[in-house]
Amino acid sequence: MSRVLIAGESWITHSIHVKGVDSFTTSAYAEGVGPLRRALESRGHEVVHLPGHLVPAQFPDDAAALAEYDVVVLSDIGANSLQLSPEVFERARPGADRIDALRGWVGDGGGLLMVGGYLSFTGFEAKAAYRNTVLHEVLPVELLPEDDRVELPAGARPQVTGAGHPALGGVTGDWPSLLGYNRVRPRPGAEILATLNGDPLVAVGDHLSGRAAVFTSDCSPHWAPTSFCEEWDGYADLFGGLIQWLAQ
Fold it and tell me: Which CDD domains does its entry note (predicted)?
């Protein structure tokens, strides 16, 4: 099966506790990669997780490093984290253009999946910023210039528009509701396989010799409630199908 790199899907929380006139701080590390990792491993894929805080220093620099993988998944990790290695950001020395390397790797036959989140696509306050990079031309959707998040606190059910496409992994029946997504626009020539609130949820397309896909909601809470990412049998079929299609 395929070897998959998942970059992102982790965070560090720094909290201030106030008790009367006194305060103190605590910090905690958390990962949201669990549901996606388990789903892909259950389909026989080998998964390597690169947490968000390690992406600036350890994301693959060039085609040779990317060649270790069949599919790269970017999930809730902004463009700055890929572009600003410690060498560049902290020491002001020229370094690798890793987003351009990723674009070239996809064009040469690699597979790229972007999963939604506050730091995916354009993202929270436009901070994910992929619209301003060359990776934008690889994606099967066009990104908004402004904050693209759509919150659906009451939930909304996806609508399948491309039933039978292999990238959906044979999923049948209704999908559970989702609680939000990143709004994007269809790109000419792309295939929109599912929508949410009338906007693309799952889209796939070719880029030269490679393939790219998007899932514009999250792969874990909060946009993907446990009814979607833990209790729904179709979750593993869906993401397994996307990875298999991307790996060609």
Answer: A4_beta-galactosidase_middle_domain
